[in-house]
Amino acid sequence: MAGSVAALVLAVGGGGAWWLTRGDGDPLAGRPRVSDDAAGLSYAIPEGWEHSDRDKLIGAFTSSVGTSGDDREGGSTVLAGRAGAIPEEALKPRAERAARSNAVFFAPDGRSVQEESRATEVSGRPAHTVVLRLDDGKGGVGHLRMTVVKVDDSRSAFLLGIAQPAGPGERRTVDAVLESAAVK
Hints:
The model is unreliable at 1-23 (pLDDT under 50). 27% of the residues lie in helices and 39% in strands. It has helices spanning 2-22, 91-106, 168-179; strands spanning 33-36, 41-44, 50-52, 63-66, 75-84, 111-122, 125-135, 141-152, 155-164, 182-183. A hairpin with a 4-residue loop joins strand 1 and strand 2.
């Protein structure tokens, strides 16, 4: 009887340990990271993506990573930037407005539809994430995800991810990069 109980405890304990450690797996675990001192964020670089030089970016952005669009139209990119202080209660409207503004910039001939808007945290700091589906006006669909983070009382930062065209793999990768964000 004691042997049966011990076997049951081991089986349940082992199954519990498997359940607790299985996770969904971080697809970017162990990958190199961008360390963006200007934005105060770091984020993972997916396999096959490249970190762009800051001098290639417009002033609103402080760092970026992305795929090469050489072999196809479009591509995926994640851009980081910084902004002034945003009170926690203003994160949602500011994130939604910034996401819509970027949708117009990246798909000027199309329209966007908000698919998600939710409060979240990055490294324990308050943040807000917005997801938009982009219609480029030519039958193509894109994916835009933006997270705005209250870094501290004097500044905020953001990550903006875009996939065009937006297949399931591209969306998952862009989302994983934003989810890998950490406040430095």
